[in-house]
Amino acid sequence: MVALIAMAAALLCNALAVGPPEAYMVALACAVGTGMHAEHLSPWHTGLLVLAGGGFAWLVHMSGALLWPRGPEESAVAAAGDAVARFAEAVGTPRQDTSRHWAAVAMHESWAALVSYQPIRITPDSTLDRLRQLNRELHLIFADAMWAAAHNAPMNPAVPDRARRLVPTQTPSARPGSASCVSRS
Q1: 7-36 per-position pLDDT tens digit
Q2: What secondary structure does DSSP assign to 119-181, as a single string?
């Protein structure tokens, strides 16, 4: 039964493009519920305990939204900027095709984070608006790099630095106090 529920959860999470941890939490909650051996607990009581545990885990998981509300969007734009910069550096080298692929994937993910999962109307000068403007600039840089790659034209060496300077610098791994704090400048 746990395997069937995990399979259904995985199918549903894949169909709805749910991000990590995807179906893992559903399968874990189901497994915890079946692993509870207490003869004095009714199935309803067991279900409520599992639901309460899942609710607590969800609250802990979502607590980052209070400290860093636009964290996923900023991470997506930062990853796209880095991938576009690596592609611009790779234009004319054997790494060009692989770098182009990963840049396109990162650009798609940043677009999905900034548009697909957001409200239709946003306030001007908001963080989301600023991130969308940065993402548009990254798309233009990516298009220029694609043109250079298609025409075997040399890429301006300043382009990768420009792409890296556009992206937010306060990513989760680069927040002050983090062990892996690295400057992007």
Answers
A1: 888 888 888 877 777 787 777 777 776 766
A2: -SS--TTSHHHHHHHHHHHHHHHHHHHHHHHHTTPPPPTHHHHHHHHHS-S--GGGSTT-TT-
Contact 131, 77 (CB under 8 A): yes
**Per the structure block, which two tokens stand in for 90?**
């790779």
Q: Would the pLDDT of 100 be above 90?
A: yes
Interatomic CA distance for residues 47 and 36, integer angstroms? 10
For residue 174, report the phi and psi dihedrals to the nearest 5 degrees: -115, 15
- Quote the CA–CA distance of 185 and 181 in Å, as a whole number: 12
Q: What amino acid occupies position 33?
A: G
- Upstream peptide bond of 21 is cis (omega within 30 degrees of 0): yes
